[in-house]
Amino acid sequence: MHFNLAAILSLAPLALAGIPRPRMVNTVVETNNMPMMRPSPNETIGHAIVFNNCEMPIYLWSVGQDISPQYQLIPGDSYSEVYRRDSQSGGVAIKITTVKNGLYLSAPQTVFAYNLVENLVWYDLSDVFGDPFQGEIVTVEPSEPEIWWNEGVPPSGSQVRLLEASNDLVLSVCY
């Protein structure tokens, strides 16, 4: 698996502050129903990574034309998938709730969406049906301008960003 060392090292201050660093879970969504765009031999494709730093489990689904199974991340766990281009919608939305089966219950969701276009990945972060991480810090790294929700609630305005697809994107909830 490829992880952006700079993104991982950016979590080093957490360990220095006595906050345990999240464990990596080697979960990569890659099924026949979810085709992946393969990189040319001279390029690599990064990952969309979600860290659960909360004191409770969170639940997520990778959604394109198909919906992945529900993944439960216990505190300290992470989820990772290689960027892929969905053949029907173009983009992928990683939908996260704090409620088991929340995707099907219209529970508040944080949506970490991306769209792989050649060697670039367009991405954004938003909430629907409420703010599941209200009162917590939610951040995506790297992002420029910075995506940092100090109270777990998205600010007004666009959160859409662009990054070279060889880089990993790390969403941390309850940072």
From TrEMBL:
Residues 1-17 form the signal peptide. Keywords: Signal. Pfam families: Bys1. It comes from the Eukaryota. This is Bys1 family protein. It comes from Aspergillus mulundensis.
